[in-house]
Write a structure and sequence with these properties.
By secondary structure, the protein is α+β, with helices and mostly antiparallel strands. It contains nine helices and 36 strands. Strands 3, 4, 5, 6, 7 and 8 form a six-stranded mixed β-sheet that branches. Strands 18, 20, 21, 23, 26 and 28 form a six-stranded antiparallel β-sheet that branches. Strand 16 and strand 17 form a beta hairpin. The longest helix has 22 residues.
Amino acid sequence: MTHTNPFGPLLLAALIPFGPVQAQQDAPFHCSTHGLEHLAPLHQNDPQRLQRIADDEAALEAYTQQYAQLSEAERGGNTYVLPVVFHIIHNNGPENISDAQVHDAIRVLNDDFNKLNADWDNVRPEFLGIVADVGITFRLAQLDPDGNCTSGINRIQSILTNDGTQDMKDLIQWPRDMYLNVWVCAYADGAAGYTLTPGSVNSSWAAAADGIVLLHNYTGSIGTSSVGRSRTLTHEVGHWINLRHTWGPTNEPGLASNCNEDDNVSDTPNTEGWTSCTLSGATCNSPLDNVENYMEYSYCSKMFTEGQKTRMLAALNSGTAQRNQLWQPSNLAATGTTGTDVLCAAAFTSDLREVCSGGAVQFTDVSYHGATTWEWTFPGGTPSTSTDQNPVVTYGSPGLYPVTLVVGNGNTQVSTQVNNYVMVMPAAGLAVPYSEGFEATTTLPNTDWAVNDVGGNGAFQLVGTTGYQSAKCVRLNNYVSSEGEIDELVSNTLDMSNASDIVISYRYAYAQRNTQNNDVLKLYVSKDCGESWSLRDILYGTGALNTASLQTSPFTPTSEAQWDESVVDNISTTYHVSEFRFKFEFESDGGNNLFIDNINVNGAPVGMAELVTEGSEGLSVVPNPAGANADLVMDLREGGALQVQVLDPVGRLVAQLPQRTLPAGLNRLALPVDALAKGVYLAVIRQNGRTQLTRFTKE
């Protein structure tokens, strides 16, 4: 039976609902097949565009019927290979699926379209004779549209992963006449995924919508997905090459009215459609429904029919939406999908880039594509060279070291060298107190500071045009960052093994671009050379991080008033170790630039900051926090000469009173605090060979 739909099976967003759709939260399964909502941003309800969609759908249907009448010989016996690119749209959440999960999704797709799935012969005997080997091979692209190396997997960080609409697709799309575009995200516009039929996107104005959108947990059978959800991409590709649901172009299976619809495939019985694996199901007066079809929602899909095969191959031979250009030999060569690997770039990763002396680094080859030989060079490492694919290298001496990799395939070689790739720090760290104003710094990274550009937007950089009471500091160009991008500035090791107290202070400057910007600056500490980290300070763009008025152009502080200070003193004695480290982590929320300067770590040595138990009671600063004036109140147990000093958190002298002789008992002296900047200080008294102190804050 054939039913004429004025717009055809548009926007086939049907997915096999193996459990609830997972996006921001669990939601009932929803399929948006019968409607124009996904194309609305492009057709804009223009009557001419809507009519063009209907005409293109009708033309493709006519071509399909003609193609079905051809003999196998007349069809040409073509081999169909389709280049595929996955765009992983993520915001550093679970939707940022692994390469392995993508490769598994391609494996499942190829098994299902080539009758290689292990369960195909378990279909009901009534349909076993028409289980189709469709004969389409899907390959991840090895060359991008410009002919450059690619893994066929792009990663784009964006909050639009939680949107899943055309806005998300507009972030990146490769030419649809060269690639099948697949977008993986956290939210697929209310479904587990969706796509569009060729006729609905044939027009040039609709090309930007062409492709498949998938939830990450419906992609492949591993990682965040599962075997039960792994046929989702198979289902969507069926729609993408012009298959309808087995019950026809409606949104809802299980309706009696579906018996009046049809999928335009002769060997799939008319059906109401199924949402459960009822193998004996029979509706619409059919002897038996094809419940196990990939275009069902039955939870047990495992086959296409021969009729569906013919319909899909017709779409691939049609010029509608340029499907017939994808599998041409010239395009396979241009996309690197001929079946012969294209060795075009050497590349590697590692489990660590910062280690303490004696630490080991595991290197992993990720070269593009098909390398069979490896030549590594590791200055400063043991071994210094290796021909292993994935060597382990130990570094003994502090410093910054490059890594070089040359790979070959027997015919050609390509190489890469990354300078300053490994930062090796002393196992017994730098002495404290430690102070960094960046005045003597000439470059970043260096032997004292590592930078991690997690978001790929440009790391912390040294600038020589501004600073706090100086000409230099570090800047993060957050003005060009995308929301959610993360950057780190990581210290060398410091020796805190003899510390009785750890105080970290730093100056910072930041501005919002609008009042909603809530960028976040965090400070972490580590007691094991950076293997693990613990949060100790957090500043928000809508709160303490904001030091200046709104800035719509790139922000640079122009006065001391646009800087503030944070003092971190909640670091326990478990961090009194020789491999102490700390790092700044910044997460962008679309605000303006961040500047950091005057980093100080005092790690007060035992003796300097000891609180003498027999005479420390009664020592205080009032008021605390101090304003323009403050007094030091002392209950002295004995009289004598007394020295009063004010120290900053790293133990530097910033103010003092002339030495004087005071009697025993209660005494009160005015402290010289008026000229002090905001922050935490120590008031210290020295009398008769004893040192006592108390901490206070200047506002």
